[in-house]
Amino acid sequence: MNTKSLIIADQIFNSRLFVGTGKYASGTVMRESIEASGSEMVTMAMKRVQLNGPDDGIINYLPRDRYQLLPNTSGVRDAKEAVFAAHLAREALQTNWLKLEIHPDPKYLLPDPVETLAAAEELVKAGFIVLPYVHADPVLCKRLEEVGVAAVMPLGAPIGTNLGLETRRFLEIIIDQANVPVVVDAGLGAPSHAAEAMEMGADAVLVNTALATAADPVKMGLAFKMAVEAGRIAFESGKAVSRQIEAEASSPLTAFLDS
Amino acid sequence: MNTKSLIIADQIFNSRLFVGTGKYASGTVMRESIEASGSEMVTMAMKRVQLNGPDDGIINYLPRDRYQLLPNTSGVRDAKEAVFAAHLAREALQTNWLKLEIHPDPKYLLPDPVETLAAAEELVKAGFIVLPYVHADPVLCKRLEEVGVAAVMPLGAPIGTNLGLETRRFLEIIIDQANVPVVVDAGLGAPSHAAEAMEMGADAVLVNTALATAADPVKMGLAFKMAVEAGRIAFESGKAVSRQIEAEASSPLTAFLDS
Amino acid sequence: MNTKSLIIADQIFNSRLFVGTGKYASGTVMRESIEASGSEMVTMAMKRVQLNGPDDGIINYLPRDRYQLLPNTSGVRDAKEAVFAAHLAREALQTNWLKLEIHPDPKYLLPDPVETLAAAEELVKAGFIVLPYVHADPVLCKRLEEVGVAAVMPLGAPIGTNLGLETRRFLEIIIDQANVPVVVDAGLGAPSHAAEAMEMGADAVLVNTALATAADPVKMGLAFKMAVEAGRIAFESGKAVSRQIEAEASSPLTAFLDS
Amino acid sequence: MNTKSLIIADQIFNSRLFVGTGKYASGTVMRESIEASGSEMVTMAMKRVQLNGPDDGIINYLPRDRYQLLPNTSGVRDAKEAVFAAHLAREALQTNWLKLEIHPDPKYLLPDPVETLAAAEELVKAGFIVLPYVHADPVLCKRLEEVGVAAVMPLGAPIGTNLGLETRRFLEIIIDQANVPVVVDAGLGAPSHAAEAMEMGADAVLVNTALATAADPVKMGLAFKMAVEAGRIAFESGKAVSRQIEAEASSPLTAFLDS
Q1: Which residues from chain B sit within 8 angstroms of residue D245, using beta carbons?
Q2: Which residues are catalytic (chains A, B, C, D) (predicted)?
Q3: In whole angstroms, what is the distance from residue D111 CA to residue B59 CA?
Q4: Predicted ipTM of the assembly
Q5: How confident is the model at residue C204 (pLDDT cuts 50, 70, 90)?
Q6: Distance (Å, rounded) from C-alpha A173 to C-alpha B159?
Q7: Which residues of D touch B245 (CB under 8 A)?
Q8: Domain residue ranges in chain D
Q9: Tell me: domain D6-237, CATH 3.20.20.70, correct?
Q10: For residues B246 and A71, which has the higher predicted lDDT (pLDDT)?
Q11: Chosen CATH of B10-237 out of 3.20.20.70, 3.90.550.10, 2.102.10.10, 3.40.50.1820
């Protein structure tokens, strides 16, 4: 299969599926699920890699030669906290890569557009490779691009809901306008959702809850892997367009009864 | 991968993707697309296998040891015509398998429930392995099951529209109630649609227009193959349930800023 | 307001909202809710009008000079039972009008297309004004029309679910093809659903659960009344068409900043 | 009907339908359509009220004792231009009311969250009654509320598309969290869309394209008026909840055939 690879910040990714590390039953299950998924980009909250005190050893499950670690700033509430967390993450994990997420509201965990833009600008200047998690807001995505983010990560639906591409119409616009990779993040609850995002032309997707909370996270890792690849191939194959209501037979009508 | 195989009428199918033969640019493209799809069940309108006069040689592209041929009665308008066409098909192709489709209306090509049930009953008695194409009507599907059809083929959307699972709610009921395989047919316009049907628990899907009219039908064949497998694996992995609106973080919130 | 009236079987209806009588907390609430709804067509299950034994007096709440009673055959499982029930209903209520509903399955209460067509044909011959409740099956609706039903009543969603127009695509075809009034029945859970059906060109809608189980059924009766009228007026006003994604300003862009 | 009135910035509105002034065929049609709609809040682009040169006299059609004029900043591209336009508008129309809209992109006309927040803060301080037009971004809406806007106007779909409530899930969150009125703006293409927004608990809706481009804008004005009222009444009546798929009969099943 000769699908073009994804490139972010000059790094090549053979997989267009990004994964998270939360909610898994154990480190072993997590490792096997992520292996099955084929992912090469793994995000984690900073708390999981605490330097002091007993950490959960998450890093041990994720060999650095295999995965690009993508620390995220989940839990911060404004740009200042985000910048602080980013520097901590860089030091702890020895990586410039950062998933920037700022959600002041603990109930819906939706991102703050204004703080995110401010933090992104500052972090880009400080040498970070910034991938901001944002609402599916086309104008915000363009502004983030202008300050130099490496990709944008608009949400499909509120995080953890498994609802799929509720923001479909806006993702289409974002993809149409983007000059950086678009990674659809949050809300993808099934392989079909991931496939749909890829068919629309998204460059990658990020999935966590749907993998980690499946009855069989390893098998589900494989399912998402295949769905993402299927969606990408379909995009490259020129997916047929939906047509309104008047049907057309797949087969020419038989004439043999009338002849 | 240890996915249970599909069995219809005691025959084992390793692929859960059924394909059609209409609308392809050439016989060669058709053959390559179907090969890429991994399908083992291929449907065709009887006109394509005309016995007299110059036929289009469609059969030559489909080796019998590789594909179960599934002649369909597309073009007939009532039970009587369908039964007549079925017998012709059996003789011409030397197979008992039959996709029964009766659509009196040339505009939308939607199936007739009453004629379909009557023809199905008669054809089952005459020894056919009958797979009827029907509206996503749960009661009709049960009645067809009662007269002995080998599978039911409810539609996802009007044929040729590529709209996807417009009949989602009713397919769920059909799948919940069925004691024979459920093959979602018509309207599947993208691999994500096929994956979704499989995630819901459909036993197989049939695709034609979306394959044959893709810019690259061969690559698209592969995309559908992978999507169908992904959807099936997800179904077996226990797909997570969609949750209403209140978000839950994938990652535990970081505490490091507050400590 | 000069909206054309609905005519079924030569009878004029000023309201395009049909209502049911089930699930109300009391006869008084039912009467007031129906009054508020402005409905002139009221359906009821035959059990509610039992001739022997203590009935619930439902008829007393529904003056005959104000409402066309539409007895329904809810509970019957095949054509034979339906025909029997229809004759009982005619005798009991002294009306030829009949909502024909046949659902053999007690779980989802979906209608049987084959039995419904058979019963409709027989009942039309016996002089009934037949309004069959059916799945949103365009071919079945045409066949019912051919045997002489006075209107067709396709469902929007499984009864009692309040899900709205899940069968939208098929209702569009039914409305496009129909030569008798189309009454969208079942599943309408909100005034917006009723308005949408009317905007699509439905001739009327039938609502029960959403009225009877509202916190305030009387106020909700008014809400449905207004929504149905609004939808009808919109249909007559030439509703604007949905356009795909590229926006167009409602207002001409201001030039004053550039000048 | 005893529906609670809408109050914004201490002003009472008897109508929850706001309208625009663009795209009408003539001033007379506009006036009649708006009259039919019952609206008391009318927005207009500043260009329409040009002080110098021949204006289109739009103001003459809109008596000040009947309508609250809501000048909008359509066409500006950043906060600075918006503030300038706002001051011009206040002077020209002698009103503090302002619909703040900033969309740097001429293709999709989607609002800029960062510029909008900055402009809103400054304009509130300058004594304006600010109603910002924004993406359906719950966090942004809270931040606008914190700087003192009088209401928030999240979009339902890209302006002019008539697609309805594409942002449904996010509007629910915005409404759930808001302490100021929520006015759903943009994309409402049919009365049913407006009714749905009101049923969800929106405080008002703004419609322009769907009115102005209807075949009969005056009749359509009435349709929207009724639909908005119907939706509001339904909200106050406690709309029944959608239930998943298992049906429940509206009428108790008849027992008479079994007895």
Answers
A1: 169, 172-173
A2: 99
A3: 58
A4: 0.89
A5: very high
A6: 29
A7: 169, 172-173
A8: 6-237
A9: yes
A10: A71
A11: 3.20.20.70
Verify whether the Cβ–Cβ distance A113 to D139 is below 8 Å.
yes
pLDDT by residue, tens only, chain D of 259 residues: 445 789 999 999 999 999 999 889 888 999 999 999 999 999 998 765 555 444 557 788 888 889 999 999 998 999 999 999 999 999 988 999 999 999 998 888 899 999 999 999 999 999 999 999 999 999 999 999 999 999 999 999 988 888 999 999 999 999 999 999 999 998 999 999 999 999 999 999 999 999 999 999 999 999 999 999 999 999 998 865 555 445 444 544 333 333 3
- Which of B48, B227, B254 minimises the CB distance to A45? B254
Q: What is the pLDDT of residues A60-112, one digit of tens each?
A: 888 888 999 999 999 899 999 999 999 999 998 899 999 999 999 888 889 99
Q: What is the pLDDT of residues B16-32, one digit of tens each?
A: 999 999 889 888 999 99
Question: What burial letters (b/e) apply to D224-234, b meaning 16+ CB within 10 Å?
Answer: bbbbbbbbbbb
pLDDT at D48: 56
In the numeric block, the tokens 């901590």 are attached to: A88
CATH 3.40.50.300 fits C7-237, yes or no: no
pLDDT mean across residues, chain A: 88
For B:172-191, CB contacts with D below 8 A are 172-173
Taking a contact as any Cβ pair under 8 Å apart, which residues of chain D between 154 and 173 contact chain B? 169, 172-173
CB-nearest to D169 from B169, B172, B245 is B245
Instruction: Look at residue A216 and tell me whether its pLDDT is greater than 50.
Output: yes
* DSSP state string for chain A: --PPPEEETTEEES--EEE--TT-S-HHHHHHHHHHHT-SEEEEEGGGG-SSS----GGGGS-TTT-EEEEE-TT--SHHHHHHHHHHHHHHHT--EEEE-----TTT-PPPHHHHHHHHHHHHHTT-EEEEEE-S-HHHHHHHHHHT-S-BEEBSSSTT-----TTHHHHHHHHHH-SS-BEEES---SHHHHHHHHHHT-SEEEE-HHHHTSSSHHHHHHHHHHHHHHHHHHHHHTPPPP--S----SSPPP-TTT-
- Residue B113, min C-alpha distance to chain C (Å): 7
Chains in contact with D, where contact requires at least 3 CB pairs less than 8 Å apart: A, B, C
